[in-house]
Sequence to fold (185 residues):
Amino acid sequence: MPNHPTADGTALLVRRSELHGNGVFARRLIAAGAPVVLQQGIPLETEELKEDIKAIQVGPRAWLLADPENPHESDEINHSCDPNLGFLDGSLMLYAIRDILPGEEVTFDYASAMADPHFHVNPCRCGAANCRKEIVSFPALDAATQEKIRPIALQYLRQILPNQPMANSVNPQLVGPNKDANDVL
Fold:
């Protein structure tokens, strides 16, 4: 997979990750607040999703499917419960939440994009000190965790009130006991 420049001109490198499969790593220092990578893919609606695809939810019924003909580093970003990237302005652009050191893996919290109530990955393998031990969608988080993640979530999730389900956003065949988060995102 070729290296693609980040939004601020920094090259990211896709390589094997200790977290899971491939990951994306910073080639140089990325300053807090810098735009890093734009989530990209083929737009789909929930009804168009099929099992065994790699996709990220970007709206109540909207998804971006990883384009196998045009791979992008955003397809390989792993989850962390203590991410260094977030959707700071609510758009599809992932920004550095803090300074990211050269060689450090860039991660985002999958709950900051997902609303599908059936999305559940157990166990989480991020290894963060504050690891939640499982990866679930934003509406499935407790109110305190939602408030913590809200400032780094996609805009459509920022409007969800605590304990409010996201109606009509699911495709149950995408998740299950043998699915891995990176198989969906």
The chain has one domain: 12-184. The two ends are 18 Å apart (CA to CA). DSSP finds three helices and twelve strands in the chain. The first strand starts at residue 12 and ends at 16.
